[in-house]
Every structure is written in C-alpha cells, then in structure tokens.
Amino acid sequence: MIAWLLGLPALLAVVFAVVFVPRRSGRAALKVFLALDAVLLVAALVVLVVAMTGGSAEAMPPEASPETAPGNWAALLGAAISVAGSSIGAAIAVAYTGAAALAALSERPELFGRAMVIVGLAEGIAIYGLIVAIVLIGRA
Predict the structure, then answer these.
(1) Within a 10 A sphere around the Cβ of 52, how many other Cβ atoms?
(2) SS3 state of residue 35
C-alpha cells in the first residue's frame, strides 16, 4: 500500500503531462517535460527502494503458498513491467501507424490490406510483452 502512495506523484505527473503540457509550446513545454521526467525518476526510485526493502519473511503467514513467497517478487515485477511497457509501446505504435494508414487509405483505397498488416505488426508488440510475462511468471 505504501508503494502505491509513494508512486502517486508519478501518476499525477503523467496526468499533468497529458492534460496541460500540450497547451504550451516551445521552451516552456520542454522545461515542463524535463521537470516531469525528474519527478518520475524520483518517484520510481522511491518505489524501487520501498519494494526492495519491504516485505520481510516474518510478514508472510506460515500457511502461505510458495507462489506468494517473498522471493518471487522480482519475476512478478518483471512480468508487470514487460506487459505495461509493451502495451504502452503498442498503443503508441498503433496510434502512429493507424493514422498513417488512414491517410494512405483516403488517397488510395486499394492499400487496405497492406495498411492493416502494418497496424497488426504494431499490435504484435503487446503480444511479445505478454509472452515474456508468461515465461517470467512460469519461472517464478
């Protein structure tokens, strides 16, 4: 619970970046993005320190299963990062390729098949992250 509370500034920084930064331009937007990057870096380091130092073996109840043992946190964290990162990457890739595909289709409708293949390849990034997560969870 404390890790979520410490990660809240990072979430607020992302929301701020999405809502308010597009209204600025030039050097002001660059300064805001750099400040948000610094906040996200500090928040990520705080969450990392809390995750690394928290959760001792005494906190685990005796009837806990090996799947919930404290030693499996790294594999589960890696699985979460792989799914989150690949999903975000796929979303960005689909946004750009989808916009380009629609622009191309508006001029030449016969390119529909090729455009959909390119958008599908961009969506494959999320599937790769899911496969990595399944492998990591299987080894945890």
Answers:
(1) 10
(2) helix
The pLDDT of 88-114, averaged and rounded, is 91
Per-residue pLDDT at 110: 92
Structure token pair of residue 79: 């699985």
Task: Quickly tell me which residue has 């410490």 as its tokens.
Answer: 6
pLDDT tier for residue 79 given thresholds of 50, 70 and 90: confident
Quote helix, strand, coil % in the chain, to nearest 5: 90, 0, 10
Using CA atoms, how far apart are residues 16 and 137, in angstroms rounded to an integer? 33
CB distance 77 to 50 below 8 Å: no
User: What's the rounded Cα separation, in Å, for the pair 133 and 59?
Assistant: 26
**99 sits in which H/E element:** helix 73-107
